[in-house]
Amino acid sequence: MGRSARDQRGSPLRHCRRRDGRLQLARAHVAAEPPARQGALLASDVRSRIAEMRASGSLLTCLANISRIAGPMSDLGPKRMSASGQKRTSLGDRRMSANDPERTSSQRASPVQLLMVLTWYSAFVLFRIHLEWESDMAGRDWRIEGKYIEYCSCDLGCPCESMADPTQGLCTGLVAFKIDKGHCDGVSLDGLVVAATFFFPRAIHHGHGVMHPVIDERANEAQREALFYILSGADQKVGTMFQIFSTIIETIKDPVFAKITFEWDLDKRTSRIEVPGIVRASSEPIRNPVTNEEHRMLTVLPDGWVFHEAENAAGVAKGIGPIKFDLNRRHSSLANVAWGPNGLIHSYDEYKKKYARP
């Protein structure tokens, strides 16, 4: 439902296309400095190079640049004093050409020594990259607890919940939730409502979905930005609700900021959602077609990705905005939900204890 943080940083290949001239110039600059300053300059160069690799967003790019970063390491190093007080050359000083008349072959760095330096330095760089990568992927701290409602074109009970195909082959309808308690970093989301109409030409896992999001008009600029960040699925675990929708939704209609009527009663299995000019929907208990008595039906999903348990209802919904549908006595379900970057916050056992259900 939006570009990921990695997409916003640009192509991960852009740093791979950079010419080597800048790297060579940096090496020459460091080598020209006094030995006492070479280490500090090299460390600064490494830090800046790591920052560039962070910006590229590609671990492959990071690995490809290790050999370039490590290049100066074998050529530089401060002079050291031996125990006898005489100057002891660094590894870089011992490197020499075959035509150097003042040095012997015993002074040259062996391939094993060079390999040890490169291995140590590569491990160091990889460790730093790992730390920076973990920091980047952490994302924002957010949490939503509230009330959830859905309407779709399937029969009562919705076969999709049991891994079957949609009743009519396609899937269209409405989802909405009201945030009882929520935040994104320091931004409170308490009391806000989000709704969206949708259409999928086949079962939703085939993708090619169309969605029209509606955000509570009461949300301020910071809250809107926070909600869009959450809805985008960015920095969220694979297989969680918003991350899944970010992969199966192909077209997003322009978001609308409007008044959203949200009425919801889980015990009575009733609800009402309305956005003027876009959608109106209501739910009522399923009734026995013979006796007309209320018929209770629960959907329980211990490993669910939207909810753990929902009350099923008979829904009526009409889409009159960009996505149009007319549903009568079709599937609807109401559920308590709690979501975070890693999906459902509570395990099934924790859910039962918290809500004393089902």
**Count of folded domains:** 2
Task: Name the shape in a single word.
Answer: elongated
Low-confidence stretches: 1-30, 58-64, 66-103
- The proportion of residues forming helix, as a percent range, comes to 25-40%
Give the helix tally: 9
Quick one: biggest sheet? Answer: 14 strands, mixed
In angstroms, what separates the terminal alpha carbons? Answer: 32 Å
Which series of helices and strands comes N to C?
HHHHEEHHEEEEEHHEEEEEEEEEEEH
Helix/strand/pairing category: alpha+beta
Gyration radius, to the nearest Å?
A: 30 Å
- Proportion of residues in β-strands: 25-35%
Tally of DSSP β-strands: 18
Overall pLDDT metric: 78
Summarize the topology.
Elements: H1 5-8, H2 21-31, H3 35-56, H4 59-70, E1 80-81, E2 87-88, H5 91-94, H6 111-137, E3 142-152, E4 171-184, E5 187-188, E6 193-200, E7 209-216, H7 221-231, H8 241-248, E8 249-252, E9 256-258, E10 261-265, E11 270-275, E12 279-284, E13 286-287, E14 294-295, E15 298-300, E16 309-320, E17 324-340, E18 343-344, H9 348-355
Parallel strand pairs: 7-8, 7-9
Antiparallel strand pairs: 1-2, 3-4, 3-17, 4-5, 4-6, 6-7, 10-11, 11-12, 12-16, 13-14, 15-16, 16-17, 17-18
Please give a structural write-up.
The protein has helices at residues 5-8, 21-31, 35-56, 59-70, 91-94, 111-137, 221-231, 241-248, 348-355; strands at 80-81, 87-88, 142-152, 171-184, 187-188, 193-200, 209-216, 249-252, 256-258, 261-265, 270-275, 279-284, 286-287, 294-295, 298-300, 309-320, 324-340, 343-344. The model is unreliable at 1-30, 58-64 and 66-103 (pLDDT under 50). The radius of gyration is 30 Å and the shape is elongated. Helix 3 runs antiparallel to helix 4 and helix 3 packs across helix 6 (111-137). By secondary structure, it is of the alpha+beta class. A hairpin with a 3-residue loop joins strand 11 and strand 12 (279-284). Strands 3, 4, 5, 6, 7, 8, 9, 10, 11, 12, 15, 16, 17 and 18 form a 14-stranded mixed beta sheet that branches. The protein has 9 helices and 18 strands. The chain folds into 2 domains: 5-137, no CATH class; 142-355, no CATH class.
